[in-house]
Every structure is written in structure tokens, then in C-alpha cells.
């Protein structure tokens, strides 16, 4: 191998020297960026005061990551490049003020994986035992933001999350999607053939139903609060010599020192879960947004049609419609609606105004950037 305009062969030591020089440049630029982030914090504190300043701006970070992907020329792929910048941004933000992020725990859940994917590694993790506890932690100010699952591509909506929005003042300020790969796990001292019980979250058990029916039809399936909790219970049972397995992700197997008996056992290879980022502040437009609403329809003929007609007439693309019991009146229902656009955009604003005229209640749960990663 030679250089383009020279016959001198390129050697391995030459390439290594070039990499070392590039690394030094990258390091200097990262620190220069970090210094700018610290100055941003100083300006915000001077202008707004410590009690009012908001360091994390979801719309700004989404715009930065989109530009990273747009200008990327390879050979690294767009998503890989964005992940690198995601962590740089996370580290710089931590210099301004480390964020405490509540998520559905314990340690090792896919929700924690979603939190790290969205916020980067430079956060203070706060695992909660239940979804409503995540909401309370953020509402109280003990956590800056929360991460909760809202829907799975094969098993549908997470009702507990939707129901938690009814009495909450929190806003949706972001979303993140995670490809879900399930593994059958056992403690190192356990013979998989002896397994009598399999622990996991009910959604995970459902996402592996066909695989379990085929390969483990005689094992009792036990639903627990999370797949990480199932992994913890399997590890604990293993220490007591009990043949118990769990279904969980790779992060849980590492955290609880479990062995993978079978990997990627989900019934659908495109299995993906969508998570919501919840916080106390509204999010300004990022240029590519979604809006989520809670709508209580009037109990009269054609009520749902009149609600949906507004979307068609104003050219607003609705992406999801879920129905839940109202819990107020017998056979009463509320609708959860997602659509493209920000509530400050004219077409979206017109739809919301018409819904308020035609429905008994309309609650804007939030407008937020569409998931970048």
C-alpha cells in the first residue's frame, strides 16, 4: 500500500502515529466543547437564576443529533456516529449539572437501557419499583426526568403508563425506541433441563409465548414486576439450589451473573418497545415532532367520528389511537391519540381547538421530538 502521490509504502507504525495524532485533536476538541457547555451553564444561571434554569433541552439535542446524521459521510454509519455524539453531549451536560433519571427498575431492565440510550451514560440512575413511582419521583422534583414504557410492537400498549397520565401534571418531552432481545437465563449451577418455573414481566412472557410453548411447555410462567426482577429472583433461587429460569436482556444477565441458555427467543425479530421521557417542562418545537393527547368523548352518537374528522380536514396525520375505560362513569371511555406535529403549529393548534369544542375533556400530554436513535 502506498500514499496517493508517493511511492513510499504506508506502514503500520505510520498509521498508528496518524491515529495518535487524530486522537489528540479529538480530545482537544471535546474539551473545547465541554468548556463551551460550562459557559452555557454560567450564562443560563446569570440570566435565569438557579431555581428556574433548565439545562437539558430535548428539542436542542434532537436537532444536534439530526445534523450529525445528515452531515455524516462514513465509513461509520449514521446511528453509530450519533451514539458517539450522544455520549459527548451527555458528558458535557453533566458538567453543567448531573441529571437524576427515574426509570422502571430494578437495575437491568430494558427501561434502564432506554434511559441510557436517550440520555447517555453520564446520569444518576434512579430505579423505581413501579411506573406510578416513576411519575411521583419526577413530580416531586426528586428526579429531573423519568422513563416509562408505553407500547410494544407485538404486544401493544402498556396500560399502566397511559392510566398514570390521567392524574399527573407531567409532560411527555421525548421518546426512545429500543429493539428488544430476550434471553432465557439460569444461574451457573443450575441444569436447564431441571427448570420448573420461568420468571419475567408479563409483556416479556407474552413476547416469547410461541417459543415457550414449543421448547418449555411444562415450565410454569410466573409474571413479576419487571424482567430484571425475574433475573434477580432466578439468581437468588440458584444460590438456594432451586431450578428457576428468567427471561431478560443481556444487561440483566451480566448484572445478576446468569448464563444464557438460549438467546433472542422473542417470537418476532423486529420486536421493539417505545418508551416515553416525562418531565415538568413543555418542549419547544424541534422541527420534527409528535404530540400526544388524552381525550374524553361526549357520550352521544357520532362522537368519535367528529373527533377524528378534524384530523383529516386539517391534514394532520394521526399515528396512534388507544381506548381506555374512563374509571369515572360506567362504560365511559377516554382516548389516547398521537399525531405528527407540534401543538404550536397552526394545523395542530386548529385540531386541538376543535377537539376542545367537541369533547368533554382534552389534555395535551406533550409535544416532543420524534426519536432520533
Automatic annotation (TrEMBL):
The keyword Zinc-finger does not apply. It is found in: Cytoplasm. The keyword Lyase applies. Residues 12-39 form a coiled coil. GO terms for cellular component: cytoplasm. Pfam families: CM_2, PDT. GO terms for molecular function: chorismate mutase activity; prephenate dehydratase activity. GO terms for biological process: chorismate metabolic process; L-phenylalanine biosynthetic process. The record marks 273 as: Essential for prephenate dehydratase activity. Keywords: Amino-acid biosynthesis, Aromatic amino acid biosynthesis, Coiled coil, Cytoplasm, Isomerase, Lyase, Multifunctional enzyme, Phenylalanine biosynthesis. Residues 100-280 form the Prephenate dehydratase domain. Its EC number is 4.2.1.51, 5.4.99.5. Residues 6-100 form the Chorismate mutase domain. It comes from the Bacteria. Pathway: Metabolic intermediate biosynthesis; prephenate biosynthesis; prephenate from chorismate: step 1/1; Amino-acid biosynthesis; L-phenylalanine biosynthesis; phenylpyruvate from prephenate: step 1/1. SUPFAM superfamilies: ACT-like, Chorismate mutase II, Periplasmic binding protein-like II. Its main location: cytoplasm. It catalyses: chorismate = prephenate; prephenate + H(+) = 3-phenylpyruvate + CO2 + H2O. Residues 292-369 form the ACT domain. NCBIfam families: CM_P2 (TIGR01807), PRK11898.1 (NF008865). Catalyzes the Claisen rearrangement of chorismate to prephenate and the decarboxylation/dehydration of prephenate to phenylpyruvate. This is Bifunctional chorismate mutase/prephenate dehydratase. It comes from Marinomonas aquimarina. The gene is pheA_1.
